[in-house]
């Protein structure tokens, strides 16, 4: 039976790939997409989500905009990684999907409460503000969701500070709320996602699809590669966010380990750090786990199959070479 999910995201190059995977695999029933200010401002990432739905030809998926800023702190975005548009690297189509009037937080609550308990999974791949506000506004969703599978954090690795990952440090108070609820939670952090690298062989497999969607992904990844080389020292860029969706499609794509999790809020050097307690055994009431090892081939098979599944023929004259790595021109 297809997994019913809400994808809460801030597109974002890797969020765009997560959208494609969720839209292109029959094991996922995408109930809606909610957006959150993160990689870029809320207005920009929401437009990016609209454009990616147009790329995939999925005007049927509800789209709801969420919070413009973190619970306590000022908004911090990542133009050095994702560009000024949030999806620099390609010319994206004009949106064909309207943004719904209902706020993302209310959509999350209404959707979880309308479905049978244990049937809706929340998949946040940006800052956790929307999820935290939803569970504070309606605490009953904590016992009704099937699980929360989030991209964020790292049990040994940081990227926005020495010890903190971007999605967590941008709104650590929200992350603290989400990780301390009683719902089952899987943290897919940097220790796992840094194994999901877009290597040359992966790009060749995507190029062989020969579609507009494949061209968009190649253009996005070309920009992402350059950004990661300049800002993070990677030869090949990691695609963090689709790892969450891949896990829901095929749990064997990664191994996990049950450990208590928490978020540091007050450390002068460690604010936003996700603290995983690997002392064994975990307490009997532990509901959190972390992703540890990725089956790289299995993961890329899922992603590439999804790109092919949502692909439509290129318009006349459109090729992968038409994309630009100098930034979005829209």
UniProtKB/TrEMBL annotation:
Species of provenance: Tersicoccus phoenicis
Extent of the signal sequence: none
Gene giving rise to this polypeptide: rihB
InterPro entries (UniProt xref): I/U_nuclsd_hydro_CS (IPR015910), Inosine/uridine_hydrolase_dom (IPR001910), IUNH (IPR023186), Ribo_hydro-like (IPR036452)
Keyword Nucleus tagged: no
Molecular function GO terms recorded: purine nucleosidase activity; uridine nucleosidase activity
Protein name per its UniProtKB record: Ribonucleoside hydrolase
Keywords tagged on the record: Glycosidase, Hydrolase
GO CC terms in record: cytosol
Alphabetical GO biological process terms: purine nucleoside catabolic process
Inosine/uridine-preferring nucleoside hydrolase domain location: 5-301
Record keyword Transmembrane present: no
């Amino acid at each position: 039976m297809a997994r019913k999910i809400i994808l809460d995201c801030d597109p974002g190059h890797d969020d765009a790939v997560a959208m494609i995977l969720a839209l292109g695999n029959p094991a996922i029933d995408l109930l809606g997409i909610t957006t959150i200010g993160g990689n870029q401002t809320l207005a920009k990432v929401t437009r990016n989500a609209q454009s990616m739905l147009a790329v995939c030809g999925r005007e049927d998926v509800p789209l709801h905009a969420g919070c413009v800023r973190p619970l306590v702190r000022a908004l911090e975005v990542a133009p050095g990684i994702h560009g000024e548009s949030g999806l620099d690297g390609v010319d994206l189509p004009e949106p064909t999907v309207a943004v719904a009037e209902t706020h993302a937080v209310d959509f999350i609550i209404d959707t979880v409460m309308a479905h049978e308990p244990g049937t809706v999974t929340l998949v946040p791949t940006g800052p956790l503000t929307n999820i935290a506000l939803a569970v504070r506004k309606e605490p009953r969703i904590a016992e009704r969701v099937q699980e929360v599978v989030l991209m964020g954090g790292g049990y040994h690795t940081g990227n926005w500070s020495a010890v903190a990952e971007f999605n967590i440090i941008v709104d650590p108070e929200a992350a603290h709320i989400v990780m301390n609820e009683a719902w089952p939670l899987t943290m897919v952090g940097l220790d796992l996602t840094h194994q999901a690298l877009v290597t040359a062989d992966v790009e060749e497999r995507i190029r062989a699809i020969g579609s507009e969607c494949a061209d968009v992904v190649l253009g996005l990844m070309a920009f992402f590669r350059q950004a990661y080389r300049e800002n993070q020292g990677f030869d090949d860029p990691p695609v963090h966010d689709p790892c969450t969706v891949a896990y829901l499609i095929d749990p064997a794509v990664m191994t996990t380990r049950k450990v208590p999790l928490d978020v540091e809020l007050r450390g002068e050097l460690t604010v936003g750090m996700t603290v995983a307690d690997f002392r064994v055994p975990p307490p009997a009431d532990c509901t959190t786990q972390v992703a540890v090892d990725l089956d790289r081939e299995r993961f890329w098979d899922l992603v590439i199959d999804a790109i092919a599944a949502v692909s439509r023929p290129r318009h006349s004259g459109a090729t992968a070479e038409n994309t630009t790595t100098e930034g979005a021109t829209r």
